[in-house]
Amino acid sequence: AQSVAQPEDQVNVAEGNPLTVKCTYSVSGNPYLFWYVQYPNRGLQFLLKYITGDNLVKGSYGFEAEFNKSQTSFHLKKPSALVSDSALYFCAVRDPILTGGGNKLTFGTGTQLKVEL
Amino acid sequence: DAGVTQSPTHLIKTRGQHVTLRCSPISGHKSVSWYQQVLGQGPQFIFQYYEKEERGRGNFPDRFSARQFPNYSSELNVNALLLGDSALYLCASSPQAVGRPDFMNTEAFFGQGTRLTVV
Fold first, then answer.
1. Do B108 and A45 touch (CB under 8 A)?
2. Cβ contacts of A104 on chain B, cutoff 8 Å
3. Do A43 and B111 make contact, defined as CB atoms within 8 angstroms?
4. Handedness of CA B66, B69, B74, B75 (dihedral sign)
5. Residue B58, class by beta-carbon neighbours within 10 Å (0-12 exposed, 13-18 middle, 19+ buried)?
6. In this complex, do B98 and A96 lie within 8 Å of one another by their Cβ atoms?
7. Which of A76, A99, B32, B64 is the most exposed place for a label (fewest CB within 10 A)?
8. What is the pLDDT of residues B4-49, one digit of tens each?
9. Please, which residues bridge with residue A58 across strands?
10. Mind listing the pLDDT tens digit for each residue in A63-81?
């Protein structure tokens, strides 16, 4: 089965500074990787995905992610953090389900991002 | 266009009761999945339905069941509620189609969730 790991429970960054939220993955075959953000008492919002092609993926709200096959990482980045970016961030991998022919998202444990003035 | 809508947004149930949660996918999306998110954890996959057929089931007991209707809306049912079933239940819809090349790479769109509290 595929899996992702988010090694940091919380990341603190000052507004205006660059931010990085880390994610590593373990897959067999091609990786289909996603980042989602969750604001308090809300569902998950899609930020970006890596399928194939360029290792730097551009997403919503100025976020981007860097895919690194040799390090099996898919870190989320933003050049200049905003206080409004404070939220819970989840890395996920698409995982096929052999019985039934479906698939599912397998999520990491999440990283709380706190951006302070 | 409306996003994924879930109802109710909150509810409180007593141990041993039954609950039904509802989800309407984005128009045109035929795939609906359900996830359970316990406080402090990432969402855990419960079910996927596509074209009214169950296409996947996560590691949940038989007390959990679901179905998808002809209009692609879905219900999640949980019987004999336990305190540990307290969680945010998320529904996700996707335009992905079984057998298509983009089946694995299509993002899922999530509703705002139903917060279930079992007392």
1. no
2. 33, 45, 48, 56, 58
3. yes
4. negative
5. middle
6. no
7. A99
8. 999 999 999 999 999 999 999 999 899 999 999 999 899 999 999 9
9. A64
10. 999 999 999 999 999 999 9
